[in-house]
Amino acid sequence: MSPDHLNLSDVLTDEYSEDDFLEVPLADRAFRYFFLVVAAVFALMVVRLLIIGVSQHGFYAAKATANISNLSVEVAPRGIINDASGNPLTENIPSFNVFVAPADLPKDEASRDQVLNSAIADLGLDKNTVYAELQGKDFNPTDKVLLKGDINHQELISLSAENLPGVNILPSFKTIDTTPFEFSQLIGYSSLATAADLKSDPNLTSNDLVGRTGLEEYYDSYLRGTDGKKVFLTNAAGAVEGENVVKDAVQGDTVNTYIDAGLQSFLYESLQKDLVFLGRNVGAAIAMDPRNGHVLALLNIPGFDPNAVANYLNAPYQPLFDRAISGLYSPGSTIKPLVAMGALATGILDPNHQIFSPGYLYVPNPYDPSHPTKFLDWQYQGWVDLYSALARSSDVYFYEVGGGFGSQQGLGITRLKQWWQKFLLDQKTGIDLPGEQSGFLPDPAWEERVKHSVWTIGDTYNVSIGQGDLVVTPIELLNYIAAIANGGKLYKPEIMKNIVDPNGNVIIENKPEILSDLSSEIGKYLPLVQKGMEDGVAKPYGTAYMLHDLPIAVAAKTGSAQVKNNAETNAFFVGYAPADNPQIAVVILVENAKEGSLNVVPVARDLFLWYYENRIKNQTNQQTNG
């Protein structure tokens, strides 16, 4: 049987012989051609996969999403921020946002314009602004452009009645502050995700809220919830064939804080009243527990309404600026306890040594002895030692202690800067708020490099009383005063107590963190400085004598700093109470005060009296009854 007549039955029954076949070997080039063809096909497949998977990934992903679904997203409410007692400082309320889905608009220009113009009219928007936003953009099938957020009831009714194709009304939430102005810089605000947000975070949708300032920004990743999703499966003709992949929305985590809402509200009202009385507009205040760094209150005036932020973007006095942590100010005489501490620890100061202040200090001019330089005190002081110098806030005393004069050796600028640095006045405290700044500590090298001038004894005198180029933030100032109160420990200021997930599990809990411990270095000198601050309240000549009749003993230091070429004076108050067992330390600032530090002492008096009546007294009663 020949190979030409081979049939299937013969093969299956082996009724043929291999001898009937002639084996012809293939040429080597046939194998080479075969492998070349296979390699070329494989290379083409790899290139095509790279094109689809990389360079055209966004296009095909959007196409796939459009083909399989109308994706329904259930926006998750943001987490709540609570005060120290568990009372909410924020809350979520339902809202509706209006978006344009360009891919779903009518294809012909006339119909598309009619839809857009109807939506613009219903929402009271500017036509040119809307068209400019949409003009010339290459939208993906799933892209949406926000027309207006948080529409009112009438706008909702009008748009719903028209049922405009490509105009989507999406349910959402908005987060509001329960007491807007009092907590505005502390809480901050949130707003709908921008194009930049969506680009940086693929988990966001255009209907999600993003924290912008304050705690809303700092803890945004925790406060954001997880959106729910429902996918409607469709065929190529667009008909819905079923639902799939249902996921419930999960609210964001809860941020519990150390903030004493009652204290914050009272302090805001007291400072606001003081500003109105003075005819001034800008102030700030912070209260902290010096035993652990817990922030009890933090506020700025003017405040703003987080629900209408656009109204404040260009408002006078920068209401969105958090002066408490970002404002840089000359500290004035509030720096004097630190200068005294450095001089005592360095061994150049005897606390009982007296210096005479007639209200000025004449420094000889080596180039013209007939014209000495005159450095003013703010008033006649007479003979003062360390305690009365702090109580009276004698400038001449601290000129000499800081820069030296006659037989009194001074710290000098190098050691002054070292002591400023020991109390971390050139470092951010690390408080859990965005935008914190750090103080600036001048020195001769900076003076020469930047100002192209030589550092003089007059520069040292100025910074020794908190003037000149020395600037700090209120939170840095308070942190150093808290260290004076607690025995020498600088704590990291903390607002957040813990973060709790929707199931009630604590996922983060703050513990007191010591940034620097100076207790061993300054411990034996602290009582001397503390006494001077206590005398500032207890002695009739003290600058904070107005506080002497409070039911608790207070240690305090006032300060006035001249700014804008001495045209304005910023007023500071720093202090703590009870003096023998400090539980609260405060800093209060009034910009452009009329009479310097005298203008902030009444606010401090209100604060300490309220805190005694509403917190310390209650604690004492509970301990007695318990």
Write the layout of secondary structure elements.
Elements: H1 8-12, H2 28-55, H3 57-68, E1 69-74, E2 81-82, E3 90-100, H4 109-123, H5 127-134, E4 145-148, H6 153-162, E5 167-177, H7 180-187, E6 190-192, H8 195-200, E7 209-211, H9 214-218, H10 220-223, E8 228-234, E9 240-247, E10 254-257, H11 261-278, E11 283-289, E12 294-301, H12 323-326, H13 336-346, E13 355-357, E14 360-363, E15 373-376, E16 382-384, H14 386-392, H15 395-403, H16 412-422, H17 444-451, H18 457-464, H19 474-486, E17 489-491, E18 496-500, E19 506-509, E20 514-517, H20 519-522, H21 526-538, E21 555-563, E22 568-577, E23 584-590, H22 601-625
Parallel strand pairs: 2-10
Antiparallel strand pairs: 1-8, 3-4, 3-5, 6-7, 8-9, 10-18, 11-12, 11-23, 13-16, 14-15, 17-20, 18-19, 21-22, 22-23
Helix pairs in contact: 4-6, 11-22, 14-21, 15-18
Structure commentary:
It is a single chain. The protein is α+β, with helices and mostly antiparallel strands and 626 residues long. It folds into two domains: 69-257, Penicillin-binding protein 2a (Domain 2); 261-625, DD-peptidase/beta-lactamase superfamily (Beta-lactamase, 3-Layer(aba) Sandwich). Helices cover 37% and strands 21% of the residues. It is built from 22 helices and 23 strands. The strands form eight sheets. Strands 12-11-23-22-21 form a five-stranded antiparallel sheet, sandwiched between helices. Strands 2-10-18-19 form a four-stranded mixed sheet, with no helix packed on it. Strands 1-8-9 form a three-stranded antiparallel sheet. Helix 11 (261-278) packs antiparallel against helix 22, helix 14 packs across helix 21 and helix 15 (395-403) packs across helix 18. The radius of gyration is 36 Å and the shape is elongated. Mean pLDDT is 88; it is low at 1-22 and 65-69.
